[in-house]
Amino acid sequence: MPEHRPxxxxxxxxxxxxxxxxxxxxxxxxxxxxxxxxxxxxxxYYPGRWLMPGGGADLADSPRQACERELREELGVEIAxxxxxxxxxxxxxxxxxxxxxxxxxxxxxxxxQIESIRLPQDELTEHRFLALPDAVARLTAADGRRLTxxxxxxxxxxxxxxLEHGSPLNP
Length: 171
Description:
Elements: E1 11-15, E2 18-21, E3 25-32, E4 38-43, E5 54-56, H1 63-75, E6 84-90, H2 92-95, E7 99-108, H3 111-115, E8 124-130, H4 132-138, H5 141-155, E9 161-164, E10 167-168
Helix pairs in contact: 4-5
Protein backbone atom coordinates (compact mmCIF):
# COMPACT_ATOMS: atom_id res chain seq x y z
CA MET A 1 0.00 0.00 0.00
CA PRO A 2 1.46 3.40 -0.93
CA GLU A 3 2.04 5.91 1.80
CA HIS A 4 0.11 9.15 1.64
CA ARG A 5 2.23 12.19 0.90
CA PRO A 6 1.09 15.74 1.65
CA UNK A 7 -0.05 17.43 -1.53
CA UNK A 8 -0.72 14.17 -3.37
CA UNK A 9 -4.32 14.63 -4.47
CA UNK A 10 -4.68 11.26 -6.15
CA UNK A 11 -2.56 8.15 -6.36
CA UNK A 12 -2.57 6.20 -9.60
CA UNK A 13 -1.17 2.71 -10.06
CA UNK A 14 0.84 3.22 -13.24
CA UNK A 15 1.95 -0.42 -13.26
CA UNK A 16 1.41 -3.19 -10.71
CA UNK A 17 2.74 -2.07 -7.35
CA UNK A 18 4.05 1.30 -8.63
CA UNK A 19 1.99 4.32 -7.59
CA UNK A 20 2.42 7.94 -8.63
CA UNK A 21 0.64 11.03 -7.43
CA UNK A 22 -1.32 12.54 -10.28
CA UNK A 23 -0.73 16.21 -10.89
CA UNK A 24 -3.65 18.40 -11.94
CA UNK A 25 -2.91 19.76 -15.38
CA UNK A 26 -4.70 22.11 -17.75
CA UNK A 27 -4.01 23.51 -21.19
CA UNK A 28 -5.13 26.68 -22.90
CA UNK A 29 -4.36 28.61 -26.06
CA UNK A 30 -3.74 32.16 -27.18
CA UNK A 31 -6.09 32.50 -30.15
CA UNK A 32 -6.15 35.63 -32.29
CA UNK A 33 -8.47 37.11 -34.88
CA UNK A 34 -7.36 38.98 -38.01
CA UNK A 35 -6.93 42.18 -35.97
CA UNK A 36 -4.58 40.57 -33.41
CA UNK A 37 -7.28 40.57 -30.74
CA UNK A 38 -7.24 37.72 -28.21
CA UNK A 39 -10.11 35.33 -27.67
CA UNK A 40 -11.44 35.03 -24.11
CA UNK A 41 -14.37 32.97 -22.86
CA UNK A 42 -16.62 33.47 -19.86
CA UNK A 43 -17.35 30.23 -17.98
CA UNK A 44 -20.71 29.72 -16.31
CA TYR A 45 -19.00 28.02 -13.35
CA TYR A 46 -17.01 31.23 -12.52
CA PRO A 47 -19.60 34.03 -12.74
CA GLY A 48 -18.00 37.29 -13.86
CA ARG A 49 -14.64 35.67 -14.62
CA TRP A 50 -12.99 35.42 -18.04
CA LEU A 51 -10.41 32.85 -19.18
CA MET A 52 -8.35 31.86 -22.18
CA PRO A 53 -10.06 28.93 -23.93
CA GLY A 54 -8.93 25.55 -22.65
CA GLY A 55 -9.42 23.38 -19.62
CA GLY A 56 -8.40 20.44 -17.53
CA ALA A 57 -6.59 17.44 -18.92
CA ASP A 58 -8.05 13.97 -18.75
CA LEU A 59 -5.80 11.37 -17.17
CA ALA A 60 -4.50 9.99 -20.48
CA ASP A 61 -4.13 13.40 -22.20
CA SER A 62 -0.83 14.93 -23.11
CA PRO A 63 -0.88 18.72 -22.66
CA ARG A 64 -1.29 19.20 -26.44
CA GLN A 65 -4.09 16.61 -26.61
CA ALA A 66 -5.86 18.30 -23.69
CA CYS A 67 -5.62 21.67 -25.42
CA GLU A 68 -6.93 20.38 -28.74
CA ARG A 69 -9.82 18.49 -27.08
CA GLU A 70 -10.78 21.40 -24.84
CA LEU A 71 -10.76 23.87 -27.75
CA ARG A 72 -12.99 21.55 -29.78
CA GLU A 73 -15.36 21.07 -26.81
CA GLU A 74 -15.47 24.74 -25.84
CA LEU A 75 -15.50 26.42 -29.24
CA GLY A 76 -16.83 23.77 -31.61
CA VAL A 77 -13.90 24.53 -33.92
CA GLU A 78 -10.98 22.26 -34.82
CA ILE A 79 -7.77 24.04 -33.82
CA ALA A 80 -4.42 22.27 -33.89
CA UNK A 81 -2.33 23.82 -31.12
CA UNK A 82 0.95 25.29 -32.31
CA UNK A 83 4.11 25.72 -30.30
CA UNK A 84 4.19 25.74 -26.52
CA UNK A 85 4.38 29.35 -25.34
CA UNK A 86 4.34 29.01 -21.55
CA UNK A 87 4.16 26.58 -18.66
CA UNK A 88 2.73 28.01 -15.44
CA UNK A 89 2.81 26.42 -12.00
CA UNK A 90 -0.18 27.54 -9.94
CA UNK A 91 0.24 27.13 -6.16
CA UNK A 92 -2.44 25.37 -4.14
CA UNK A 93 -3.46 28.37 -1.98
CA UNK A 94 -4.70 30.26 -5.04
CA UNK A 95 -7.40 27.75 -6.00
CA UNK A 96 -7.36 24.90 -3.49
CA UNK A 97 -4.96 22.66 -5.46
CA UNK A 98 -1.66 23.06 -7.27
CA UNK A 99 -1.77 22.82 -11.04
CA UNK A 100 0.40 23.05 -14.13
CA UNK A 101 -1.06 25.06 -17.01
CA UNK A 102 0.37 24.69 -20.50
CA UNK A 103 -0.31 27.59 -22.89
CA UNK A 104 -0.09 26.92 -26.63
CA UNK A 105 -0.21 29.14 -29.68
CA UNK A 106 -3.76 28.71 -30.99
CA UNK A 107 -3.08 30.60 -34.20
CA UNK A 108 -5.20 33.15 -36.00
CA UNK A 109 -8.82 32.30 -36.80
CA UNK A 110 -10.38 33.23 -40.11
CA UNK A 111 -13.74 35.04 -40.21
CA UNK A 112 -15.56 31.79 -41.18
CA GLN A 113 -13.95 29.98 -38.23
CA ILE A 114 -15.00 32.78 -35.89
CA GLU A 115 -18.56 32.65 -37.22
CA SER A 116 -18.64 28.89 -36.60
CA ILE A 117 -17.75 29.17 -32.89
CA ARG A 118 -20.43 27.39 -30.85
CA LEU A 119 -20.13 27.56 -27.07
CA PRO A 120 -21.45 24.74 -24.88
CA GLN A 121 -24.37 26.43 -23.08
CA ASP A 122 -23.81 24.47 -19.88
CA GLU A 123 -20.16 25.57 -19.61
CA LEU A 124 -19.56 28.93 -21.33
CA THR A 125 -21.81 31.98 -21.51
CA GLU A 126 -19.90 34.30 -23.82
CA HIS A 127 -16.78 34.82 -25.94
CA ARG A 128 -15.02 37.97 -27.08
CA PHE A 129 -11.95 39.02 -29.02
CA LEU A 130 -10.15 41.79 -27.14
CA ALA A 131 -6.98 43.85 -27.47
CA LEU A 132 -4.31 42.66 -25.02
CA PRO A 133 -4.84 45.47 -22.45
CA ASP A 134 -8.62 44.88 -22.48
CA ALA A 135 -8.16 41.12 -22.20
CA VAL A 136 -5.73 41.48 -19.26
CA ALA A 137 -8.20 43.82 -17.52
CA ARG A 138 -10.88 41.07 -17.59
CA LEU A 139 -8.59 38.38 -16.17
CA THR A 140 -7.38 37.72 -12.65
CA ALA A 141 -3.93 39.16 -11.97
CA ALA A 142 -2.19 35.78 -12.38
CA ASP A 143 -4.16 34.94 -15.53
CA GLY A 144 -3.32 38.38 -16.96
CA ARG A 145 0.39 37.85 -16.26
CA ARG A 146 0.20 34.41 -17.91
CA LEU A 147 -1.52 35.81 -21.01
CA THR A 148 0.96 38.69 -21.28
CA UNK A 149 3.96 36.36 -20.93
CA UNK A 150 2.52 33.94 -23.51
CA UNK A 151 1.90 36.79 -25.98
CA UNK A 152 5.45 38.06 -25.48
CA UNK A 153 6.78 34.53 -26.09
CA UNK A 154 4.68 34.27 -29.26
CA UNK A 155 6.09 37.55 -30.61
CA UNK A 156 9.69 36.91 -29.60
CA UNK A 157 12.30 34.33 -30.34
CA UNK A 158 13.17 33.34 -26.79
CA UNK A 159 11.12 30.14 -26.75
CA UNK A 160 8.80 28.79 -24.11
CA UNK A 161 8.60 30.81 -20.89
CA UNK A 162 8.41 29.18 -17.45
CA LEU A 163 6.03 30.90 -15.01
CA GLU A 164 5.06 30.54 -11.37
CA HIS A 165 1.60 31.93 -10.71
CA GLY A 166 1.88 33.92 -13.92
CA SER A 167 5.27 35.45 -13.21
CA PRO A 168 8.24 34.62 -15.48
CA LEU A 169 11.25 33.12 -13.70
CA ASN A 170 13.59 32.37 -16.61
CA PRO A 171 15.77 35.07 -18.17
